[in-house]
Description:
The protein is α/β, with parallel strands linked by helices. It folds into two domains: 38-93 and 111-221 and 455-467, 3-Layer(aba) Sandwich (Rossmann fold), CATH 3.40.50.2000; 231-447, Glycogen Phosphorylase B (Rossmann fold, 3-Layer(aba) Sandwich). The protein has 17 helices and 16 strands. It has a seven-stranded parallel β-sheet, with helices on both faces. The protein has a six-stranded parallel β-sheet with strand order 13-12-11-14-15-16, sandwiched between helices. A three-stranded antiparallel β-sheet has the order 8-9-10, covered by helices on one side. β11, α11 (297-311) and β12 (319-324) form a beta-alpha-beta unit. Mean pLDDT is 86; it is low at 5-16.
Amino acid sequence: MAASCVALLAVCLLLLLLLPLLLLGAWKRGQRGRAARHVVVVVLGDVGRSPRMQYHALSLARHGFSVSLLGFCNSKPHNELLQNDRIQIVRLAELQCLAVGPRILQYGVKVVFQAVYLLWKLMWSKPAAYIFLQNPPGLPGIAVCWLVSCLCGSRLVTDWHNYGYSIMGLVHGPQHPLVLLAKWYEKLFGRLSHLNLCVTNAMREDLAENWHVRAVTVYDRPASFFKETPLDVQHTLFMKLGRTHSPFRTCSEPLDPAIERSAFTERDARSGVVTRLFGRPALLVSSTSWTEDEDFSILLAALEKFEQLTLSGDSLPSLVCVITGKGPLKEHYSRLIDSKCFQHVQVCTPWLEAEDYPLLLGSADLGVCLHKSSSGLDLPMKVVDMFGCCLPVCAVNFKCLHELVRHGENGLVFQDSEELAAQLQMLFSKFPDPVGKLNQFRENLQGAEQLRWDESWQRTVLPLLMDT
Length: 468
């Protein structure tokens, strides 16, 4: 008898909790006319470091939709997003990990908090025709967004950037109970979306064969602001960065007070003409989230080899290596960098403003990518951005990288630090060499048709939305 009463009480409490959701969902279903041109974009991560979802929001806004972009606001998004009247950024509160109890309990509390909080935010948002969700992280986002789409009559669009469980596996191991639970969860709820997008053909095939999820490949494309940087803008950027980062500063001040000089360029104040310095260092750029899927010890070992080659008399320039980004392993690698005693290589790790990052890529001589996909099925967007700036790339090889980097045509792929060091030696030999391999790669990129994000989105995503 007592057990029956407890069960009845539990059912009543559940109904009391669900009733407001059902009533609110019914009201939002009745507002379908208002919802037709509104989309909610959900990022359970830092909006400023989620360029693909920012691009989705901008493209939706350009095609007449109003957009509510929900996410964490730890870094500044691009100005174009902030200035668009059709886009409202809704800041989500982020629960920091608890400092007490077992790790699995800490993680469970965080997931429950995020689930309830996201449900509340979505249910009280303006009625929407579509909910765009970035995955990963999909726990608890996929289940919550699916529930809201059922209650409110919205269409759920999941954009698969990778698999969340494979990223967790880098930290905990592939057979950890949390990883296995996350894999089961992703497979179950991943099938419930009305529309699935993914970033490579390899991922599309894997989703179909192993997950029974039908997806459409929407390759990452560079936004319009990723392009080669004019020389005068390069100089302005170098002078700005030189105020906080010594590798951008000149080693010798000009005798003429009318000359303004950086480590790479100088400007004559009388004529306004900017020129590249003779004997300037080469500028190498890499960007990272400082996570387990990027092993920067490979780059550091290659730079050590480059240093040895320079000291032994090879015709190589000094090198400035700029590694941009934020992430959990930055402090670890910063200590490794500080322990090196380079003479001809300088390394700095700035966090750039959103508007300065494409300018830096458009000013560099070579990009290096150390992203090695946890699943082997996603592609590094940083390389897409580099190609948009006609910047040749050396990238660590993995399963589907050939869908982006064509070895010997728009860049080079490598397996280890020895191979990367040999590539740096070959590309920077007699730098700057107008007929060298580095310049050939740049000319190939300049001559190739560069499909931009907006055009690609209009061709692929917009028709899909019209059909759902």
